[in-house]
Amino acid sequence: MSERSVQLPTKDCPTCQRRRIKCDRGLPGCAKCAKRKFDCPGYGLQLKWGQGVASRGRLQGQTIPVHEANANASNLNSLVVGNGRNLSSDFQLGLGSGTVDFLRIQPTSPATLLGSPSVDLSLSGPRPPHASRLLAWFKERVAQRLAWIDGPQNPWRQIILPLAENSETVLSSVLALAAHDLASQYPQHDPWFVKFQDISNAYQNKALSLLAKELGTLTASSSSSSSSSSIVQSTPDASMTLASVIILCNNELLKAQSSGWKIHLQAARELILVSSNSSYLQQQLLRIQEFLLQEFYATSVWTQLTTFDDMNVINNINTAPTSTEDAAVADFIRIIYQTSQLERLQRRSGSENPLPISQIEEILTQIESARIKSFRLSEKVDFWTASDRNDFELVVWMFYHANLIYVAQAFPVLRDCGKVDVQGSRDAILNHVKDLSETRNGMWAQDLVWPLFIAGTELRGDKTGQRFVENAFKDVMRLSRTLDRARVLSFLGIWWNLDLDGRMTSWIQLARERPQDFNFMLL
Description:
Its main location: nucleus. By secondary structure, the chain is mainly alpha-helical. It is built from 20 helices and no strands. Helix 7 packs antiparallel against helix 9, helix 12 runs parallel beside helix 14 and helix 17 packs antiparallel against helix 18. It is elongated, with a radius of gyration of 25 Å.
């Protein structure tokens, strides 16, 4: 073809129009977009997505389908899928002038990262340019904050992203979470906060619609199968469905006071419990199923820890997950769950029937075993650097001391008889936080909420310690998102300044007696 036969575009590309600069109208994209690492949308008809899946109209009140004959899964019928708000009619996601310009992000300068996406989509069909950029943001930033250990084997990269390449539902869930995480970098009235939230809501509604269809297929398959194994094994796509539910649960947890996470956590539980032999899930499955069960278990424990209801969300999961490279402190979380269950049991039985001291002391033995196992595990885990390995050991020590304090708070007899040195463990946590903050810039911030909170509850009257914990909490929120941590810190402030009347000896009593004021999550 001769140079004269090339028909140049008659209009500037939408990106140059939006930037109000003269476009060179080059093919296949303009040079000015390429120079700034923008994705030039071209010059033809600009396709736009519509409003996505609405939570009104024909999909309003959509429920997760389940086979009625399965008693364990019967609760799924009452779970409503999708309560995200609709996109406003005057804002649509697309490839034209409505596309969000990621390179204008300012707060933490993610422009460099998003300008060169490193994750490509393998699903068929056209994708808007921002999809691969959101995946890059998830890979580089979100995955780091979701994992206990951000090393080369981070499961949110090594497990979840490959699933997203093969499942539209997982992909949409990941994109919803990534967009929501980006939105949280901005004040709520900032235009970019609104735009990223709109993107997140559109992907979430799409994921919820796809999820409802998948659950219908899975439960139909389960009801026709004679196998007693878990639903996670019943079809090749079941793991992807469970992964989507867990990702959407994490997305809702970013909203702090929203209760949407409860729906997804309940759905994950029912997916796991569809089989009458749920313990099979932990015995001989692939890493992916083990990781998903660990995520479900840990989230269940954290979200129920301060509600003081019967902790039934993870009942019937007979074999609790154990520490692995994907959940290095899972043994400590299992002990937290066990301690909480026993504390509630003792409260129901009253002072007339206290738990045997030997049963309580057994928890101390388990805490010591969890510490030893986590240290051994650290020798097998791939860390980015040797310094990261040392920092992880500080985190293990903090969980060790936090669990000792929590057991003593739940069962004061351990404190009274000197079985637990509460003040010594408190000071150890504060010293380890200080050592950790001096070694690296926040890689472990998401792991510090539990030990900081527990140490903080033992700082009544210690103004210096209170300021240290308050500043550390603010650093955690700055580095790994706010979630519900502002309310956690607010509770500590009230606890520190409360004029106790002698009968209230622990934060557990305060949170239990005033649930309307102190319903917070230690995440």
